[in-house]
Amino acid sequence: MFEANRIYFFDTTLRDGEQAAGVNLNVSEKLQIAKQLEKMRVDVIEAGFPASSQGDFNCVQAVSREIKRSTVAGLARTKEGDIRAAAQALALAENPRLHVFLATSPIHMEYKLQMTPEEVLAEAKAGVSLARSLMSEVEFSAEDASRSDLEFLIKIFKVAVESGATIINIPDTVGYALPDEFYKLCKAIIEGVGAPESVIYSVHTHDDLGLATANSLAAVRAGVRQVEGTINGMGERGGNAAIEEVAMAIKTRSDFFALNINLDTQRLYPVSRLVSRLSGVTVPPNKAVVGANAFAHEAGVHQHGVLAKRETYEIMRAEDVGCTPAVMVLGKHSGRHAFRDRLELLGYNLDDLQLTKAFEIFKKLCDEKKEATDGDIEAIVADEIFSVKPEYHYELKDYTVHVGAGLSTAAIVLTRNGVELKDAATGKGPVEAAYLAIKRIIGLCPKLDSFRIRATSERANAMGEAFVILSHSGIKAQGHGASTDVIKASIRAYVNAVNRLYSTAAVRDIKFTGEVAAAS
Ligand code: KIV
Ligand code: ZN
Asked: By Cβ atoms counted within 10 A, which residue in 44, 74, 134, 444 is the most buried?
């Protein structure tokens, strides 16, 4: 039974969040994020859309196996195949939830579904009934609810409840709603459907107009008790409602909302960093709650005020969201225990083998530079531990670059299955030359959609971290590389993305076209 005075958080970072352009997380990365979400006491973790790909099915299955306290949800259309696939992927979950969705707006029904409203009602009834016959917790979402007819919404939600849905979700799929209007819509639905107390109302908002958080809070005011969102607001187009914003608004303004949350908000900052690093989607410095400047005061007047009394310019404390500076800097004399504790604080949960490997790399790094910052540690863990190694994968063995004014050369040595493959190329700069040489070696010409480099700290001896997004044959893959040498970091990121392209192609059973024998 749901508590009437509590807001339940439904995190869909692994499903809707991962639909953000260029984001492609593998099973081990999704598990890492899921474990941290569970530690943060997120109520529901939506792990994927099992019928959409074998990769998503495997992720939902893996998360179901590992996560014991949070509910694990799997998404499905109302189609029988989708529902059975989701139920199968969720079979091992301690607390599973089947999330069924169907569009209800006139534009979606006519052009996407090509169904009449009567057919949509019948489809919802059949889908929810089947889902409920397989699972006791069923959520029904009326996709594009905010652009749907109110009477029709009430009708379809009544049908869903009668067919066994226990959670009724009202999505603002395209981020079109305005807070006042959304408040009225949610209130009218809650009153019109008149579901028993065992049913909880939910909202799922998108940020196309920058209103996702405001709309979620308006819905809460109207009586909605589940809020769906993602960490950092990551998601398609403008993204989803940011869990950290909604949670901190309800907590900071408890005088207004008077509602409880079970979320451990002190884990928001580490989880935000983890999601950002693994997805490659950076958090803007001015991002509310988790941005690097969220608690920074630059103006003299503000600094003076904060020093005199913190509350003059701060409505929440950095510690409340877990944004605390490192108490000690780790270096060459730090032991495995201190290293593991720091990783845990940073939001990483490594098994013994991964910890041993990460610790070795950390020690090597400390030989190169005396101390390792949090950024360095996060970078090496993301780079080494989560780099995918599908059967068909490349590793960087060696490289040399010569940088000239306007013309650089790069020679690259990769290995695949123990076989050495080498080639060289020229380019306007060393990174371009290196990427051309790699393309010659792998016999594949993926498109470079994005390339970014950043330093892991403000220090001159910071590591360089490179992020690339490659696309080929309709598959997009991101890659991450870290090194004290930015060229090496860039090469590693590219090779990592190539490996991800292959692993995604393997799960989707796609053979790349244009692939040719490796150049000699
Ligand atoms: O935005 C949306 O409508 C969704 C549904 C599947 C809930 O993501
Ligand atoms: Zn969505």
From this structure: 74
